[in-house]
Amino acid sequence: MCKSVEDCREPFHGGSFFDHEGLPYCETHYHAKRGSLCAGCSKPITGRCITAMFKKFHPEHFVCAFCLKQLNKGTFKEQNDKPYCHQCFDKLFG
């Protein structure tokens, strides 16, 4: 069983688990401990990732908070801890 403080009691599928500091965790809590859960979907990031606004995202989940267009790191504006494309930012806050 997962040793998360959330006490998820998630069984280990196929008997495999993720080790973090000598304790067994389910995949979700392992990535939560390592800070590699997507801020957009809350699922583990195992491939490419975008780090922006002190958070990590799957590339497809880093989107404008208004129009939902996919963003790239460095090509967005931030307001109230949310990312916006330049067009939406100017429309809403300009």
Automatic annotation (TrEMBL):
TM region positions: none
Keywords attached to this entry: LIM domain, Metal-binding, Zinc
Chief subcellular location: cytoplasm
SMART domains with a match to the protein in the record: LIM
GO molecular function, one term: metal ion binding
LIM zinc-binding domain location: 36-94
Protein name, UniProt field: LIM zinc-binding domain-containing protein
